[in-house]
# Entry
Amino acid sequence: MADTDDASRFARIALPHLDAAFSLARWLVRDAALAEDVVQEAMLRGLTYIRSYREENPKAWVLRIVRTTAFDHMAQQRRVAEVPLDHAAELPDPQRSPEAAFADAEGRTALARAVAALPDELRECIVLRELEDMSYRDIARIAGVPLGTVMSRLWRARQMLRGAALERQP
# Structure
């Protein structure tokens, strides 16, 4: 088990990335409550293995643990759930018409559904790149795949999202 020094080192390294960890877990397991469990288990794993951390990108290290934990959990559960589309309440812009605000909300909902419909490996890459702003190299480390595979997955994910957007247009 980790001692006090390990725990404080872990807190410095991992805790600033909890939001990113939850975001990735939620997109991977497609359920907010389950994502909380995955992040909690990932944090326990990270604390247990903090001594193996070698001064790399801390966010990439945390997200790699979250990814592994999420995929382990999905393999055990073998179930699929919808991604909850619970957006925080947004105040309408007084300069915009209600129709424009509705269209924007519809677009965000459609995009979230399109991302949720991507295959796991494509969804993982697009979430890490576009939502977590990770570099291609860090995504490759997190996913455990070559850099070229990351580039290919991102290209395919973007093509699928573009196709979904085109299908949506009248």
Observations:
- Residues 98-168 form a domain with the Arc Repressor Mutant, subunit A fold (CATH 1.10.10.10).
- Residues 147-168 form the longest helix (22 residues).
- Confidence is low (pLDDT under 50) at residues 79-89.
